[in-house]
Write a structure and sequence with these properties.
Two copies of one chain form a homodimer. Helices cover 43% and strands 15% of the residues of chain A. By secondary structure, chain A is α/β, with parallel strands linked by helices. In chain A, helix 8 links the parallel strand 3 (127-130) and strand 4. The longest helix of chain A has 21 residues, at 315-335. Chain A is elongated and about 90 Å long. The N and C termini of chain A lie far apart (89 Å).
DNA sequence: CTGTTAGCGCCTTCAG
DNA sequence: CTGAAGGCGCTAACAG
């Protein structure tokens, strides 16, 4: 059993070379002879020296080799949600080949004073902040770190680098499909528009001030289209739910359709909501689309499988774009003396999937 | 605009207190007066000091606040595979409330010399190694780091902390169900048993030496049960495929059933394989289970949905157990002078789901 | 409750 | 191609 070298310095001492030389053996192979390098690496292996300590290295180089993703929801929810799993897959893809890993940072809604400790303490080179409300404390904490930050989806009104879709424009084809089929009495179902819980009807006038920009954009986009078709947006019933599990969505459909039995169509801002409508319709004996037209948003696999008329957004591509953008910002920071002044902003395309849940109204 | 304090020391200097005091304001609130603490925190906020630098802190405390997960496959595959997504969800759950994040470390099969750099450079407190072949280079690299390592699923024959199921025992109820229904001519379909690609028939005698312990265990468990029922394991046809996508699985079913048309049942070591059999049976006009009985393994959602007779394993619980076990090892390392000598080993329970794809053979 | 003293292990000049 | 020196920013231990 050979003595154990636990640091670069001790290994250097044992071999009778300088620390630099050992360091170079790992990091700058062209700075020493191949023979010496081999000898050093072999000696290291023999003594169980695992190579330069990553922490010390990071401290010195100011580079970690990890990018953080802030997922606001309880982290294990993120793995149950198809969209965020796809997003993570995209980020993983973006880092493939890079010398960076992805660090998942749970940033739950628990408003402990130190809710931001995880992001404050995370050992990463930058953050991707995935879909949080404007004014989110974790986002603020990430910015406070003075590291590159890329925002994904929301908030959409900051000066930070951004990757997302144009929700307001993206939903219009769905609204248009309903209008073109001849619908005039259309209700809207949306997931929460604000961080604060508020289930039930929301006046159209309140939508503008909502702090969850994604849902706000979708509702506004639909209203834009309705308005353009001569429908008074103030007369469009809008129902929201804070949680988007199946029972909530069905209940939202019930609330909307029992209070407004004259509706011939429901536009939903998420596929989950649309499923709620489909389920409620089935439970109450209505046929879709003969008795009721429905549109969704997101284009999750199950929606396409079920033939839902919906808007497909590229979740994986978003993840990849966000990952790459952050990586570029990190690299630029090392290279440039002065960071470039234009903030990257990438808007990805969406597509409307016609599906089979829109048809002309019965009467 | 106030001067910017970029380090703890500079902030301390500007405030005329010692660095310790500032450090304590962040880390040991009970070591100074609330008033002073407030004053320090306020001054920090005013100057944009983001708090103690995480890298320097980690370097000093030898603690990062992140645990690494090694997923051998190309990382974005991991997000397409239900089992590994559930596993990650479990890990996320285990770290919830802990001051640890999860770092995903892609450890693709690219056997570059430095394939292990990511794991060699990862700034983490320990590793969970998820389902790799025995002798995997990334596992070796993780061990070389002298950090706590927890193995999940495989390899199962090391002295490392382990979380998994007893694959060999777990599959026996599926085999037994087929035997009890009266089947005697049963084929086996398995995903790759070795890292090296080898599609097609595998002699039962070769299974023992397979380096992918999970699949090996399942095949051996089935053979155990067959043997106990008086069937010569040497006569049981075993077909493998390296890749488990749908076409491969269907093709495996074709290969098995065309060469052995007398089989009345197929035992599969994964649900994906069983789907391949179901699809092939449907395509060739056989009814399951009337004409052919089929069992799977894993218990993915879709399998249960489809009524497959299969073994359900608790993927999320595995992730949670692995995460917690690693966390404990990390904490113990800080506390204990001498690490405890018994290596934790946790075997989780599986359940056989009867489903509806097993019935007595026709003749 | 506050301050002083020592490094943590490495990489990067810069000089041979 | 190699070596010596300095410091990255912080916290643990101890002493006031």
């Amino acid at each position: 059993m050979v003595k154990r070298a636990r640091t670069l310095a001790s290994l250097a001492a044992e071999l009778g070379v300088s620390r630099t030389t050992v360091s170079n053996a790992y990091n700058q192979p062209d700075q020493l002879s191949a023979a010496l390098r081999e000898k050093i690496l072999a000696a290291a292996a023999a003594r169980g020296y695992p190579g330069p300590d990553p922490m010390a290295r990071s401290m010195r180089t100011r580079r970690v080799g990890a990018i953080g993703v802030l997922l606001t929801e309880h982290l294990s929810y993120a793995f149950e949600d198809v969209a965020s799993v796809d997003f993570l897959a995209g980020m993983a893809e973006a880092t493939y080949g890079t010398d960076s890993a992805v660090t998942l940072i749970p940033a739950g809604p628990d408003a402990r004073d130190d809710a931001s400790t995880l992001v404050g303490r995370a050992v990463v080179d930058g953050f991707v902040v995935y879909s949080v409300a404007s004014g989110d404390a974790h986002l603020a904490a990430a910015q406070a770190r003075h590291l590159p930050v890329v925002l994904c989806d929301q908030p959409s009104d900051t000066d930070l680098p951004f990757v997302g879709i144009d929700d307001r424009a993206a939903i219009r084809p769905a609204a248009r499909a309903l209008l073109e089929a001849g619908h005039r009495r259309i209700g809207i179902l949306s997931i929460r528009l604000t961080r604060l819980r508020r289930d039930g009807f929301v006046p159209a006038a309140d939508v503008d001030g909502a702090d969850l920009h994604v849902q706000r954009g979708r509702v506004l986009g639909a209203l834009d289209e309705f308005t353009a078709a001569g429908i008074d947006p103030g007369q469009v019933p809008i129902v929201t739910r804070h949680i988007n599990d199946q029972p909530s969505c069905v209940d939202a459909a019930r609330e909307l359709l029992t209070t407004h039995p004259d509706l011939t169509a429901v536009l939903c801002t998420t596929d989950s909501m649309a499923f709620g409508v489909l389920d409620y319709a089935a439970a109450t004996g209505r046929t879709v689309p003969a008795d009721l037209s429905v549109t969704g948003f997101d284009g999750v696999r199950y929606a396409l499988h079920r033939g839902l008329s919906t808007v497909i957004q590229p979740n994986k591509a978003k993840g990849a774009a966000a990952g790459r953008m952050l990586q570029e910002l990190i690299d630029a920071r090392v290279t440039d003396t002065e960071p470039s002044l234009d903030v990257p902003r990438r808007i990805l395309r969406t597509t409307y999937h016609a599906g089979s849940t829109v048809a002309p109204p019965r009467n």
